[in-house]
Amino acid sequence: MKLLASDLAIAIGGRLVGPDTEIDGATFDSRQVLRHQLFVPIVAERDGHDFIGDALKAGAGAYLTSRPEIVEGLGGTAIVVDDTAQALIDAARWGRTQFSASTVVIGVTGSVGKTSTKDLIVAALSSAKRVVANVRSFNNEQGLPVTILNAPLTTEVLVLEMGMRGLGQIDDLCRIARPHIGVITRVGEAHTELVGGIEGVAQAKGELIEALPPQGVAILNADDERVIAMRSRSVAPILSFGESATADVRITDLHLDAHGCALFDVATSSGSASLNLSIPGRHMAHNAAAAIAVGEALGVPLSQMVESLRSATISDRRMQMKTTRNGALLLDDCYNANPTSMAAAIDTLAQIPATRRIAVLGIMAEIENPESAYAKIAHMAQAGNIEIIAVGTDGYGRESTSVDDAARRVSECDESTAVLVKGSRVAGLERIVDAVVPN
């Protein structure tokens, strides 16, 4: 989004210091500054103001600051504000108004599958629309605003993932984004300790549905009772997806191929088709069905969506199929973990036709009843004839081992073995994947 620094300063109640200049997008990471971007120094554990100089050297067009005393020494174009984080939100809220009235904003949330569903929505729509979405998991009060500000004004569809770490946070994001379409993937045991249990998760996720206008569309998972119950919270029409006989976008004849990728038929009001995804996971069929439901709402031909989805890829570290140096099949799903996503990954591994199956599992953070959750996953693994290598936790009933030892054990596996690597971000299990998979 290209705009003048002077216009932005007026919009957010800031004070322009230095020459007026054109800004093209925004970032809060000085290591990823693109030419002419607005640099937003966030004050957190580290003060982003310390990196303004680096951002200017990298080509930033202007920067926000709440420390006017540093401007003279830094030079360039500054917009002085009281609070840089709030100013970023204000800038995105104003930026949202600069798009054409025909631009459609889609919000995506859920306990699991947000990023994968966002990626599949982009794939399904891109053959017919100019689509922009957040990179990686830029889904909070910093990531969502920069996504809006980085989107060209010619964008036809803007897809925004929305994360939650407390009640009211998705509502706050919706006040910035003002979505027309809201997609809820699933309600599961993620961040339960922050919102008083799984019912609190449902309450928080449903804030997206409550934010939709009457002329919008709520896309709901018909197979999740807590999600489909959100229809009572919507003033917008409902489109549902799933394996339920009542689903508007219905999945049938779902099974997995030799690599754990979903093959299924999908039926909609506009027709039916067969689809084979290239992404491992039974649950990916539901994410693809959600994407198809979005396309149905926007009038994208089913045949175009199916063709695009067949070759779709998703963001890094999410059920990515890789091969180790020694030939073992490895499912890299180490971006994050909660009991719901962990169960889905274990179920996928159990269905892969391998002589030996191993799950390298780390901690599941921010869950309400960890002892019970770990025990259920351990039971699932045992039922699926899956060996567990536990890293950094003994919650699975196995002696904990180190990252290095786990990597050594995985590196010894050959082509007869399928390996899953999964844990919460704090576990850092990507180190195992990087150690055993050739660059």
What does this structure look like?
The protein is of the alpha/beta class and 439 residues long. The chain contains 17 helices and 21 strands. It has helices at residues 5-12, 52-57, 71-74, 84-96, 114-125, 143-150, 169-177, 192-195, 198-205, 207-210, 225-228, 283-297, 302-310, 339-350, 370-383, 403-411, 430-436, and strands at 2-4, 15-17, 22-24, 26-27, 38-39, 62-65, 78-80, 104-109, 131-133, 157-161, 181-184, 217-221, 238-242, 249-256, 261-268, 271-280, 320-323, 329-332, 356-361, 387-390, 417-422. It has a nine-stranded mixed sheet, with helices on both faces. A five-stranded mixed sheet has the order 2-7-6-5-4. Helix 5 packs across helix 12 and helix 16 runs parallel beside helix 17. The longest helix is centred in the middle third of the chain and has 15 residues, at 283-297. The model has no long low-confidence stretch (mean pLDDT 96).
Task: Tag the structure with descriptive keywords.
439 residues, alpha/beta, 9-stranded mixed beta sheet, 5-stranded mixed beta sheet, 17 helices, 33% helix, globular
Outline the secondary-structure elements.
Blueprint (H helix, E strand, L loop, with lengths): L1 E3 H8 L2 E3 L4 E3 L1 E2 L10 E2 L12 H6 L4 E4 L5 H4 L3 E3 L3 H13 L7 E6 L4 H12 L5 E3 L9 H8 L6 E5 L7 H9 L3 E4 L7 H4 L2 H8 L1 H4 L6 E5 L3 H4 L9 E5 L6 E8 L4 E8 L2 E10 L2 H15 L4 H9 L9 E4 L5 E4 L6 H12 L5 E6 L8 H14 L3 E4 L12 H9 L5 E6 L7 H7 L3
Parallel strand pairs: 4-5, 5-6, 6-7, 8-10, 8-11, 9-10, 11-12, 12-13, 13-14, 18-21, 19-20, 19-21
Antiparallel strand pairs: 1-3, 2-7, 14-15, 15-16, 17-18
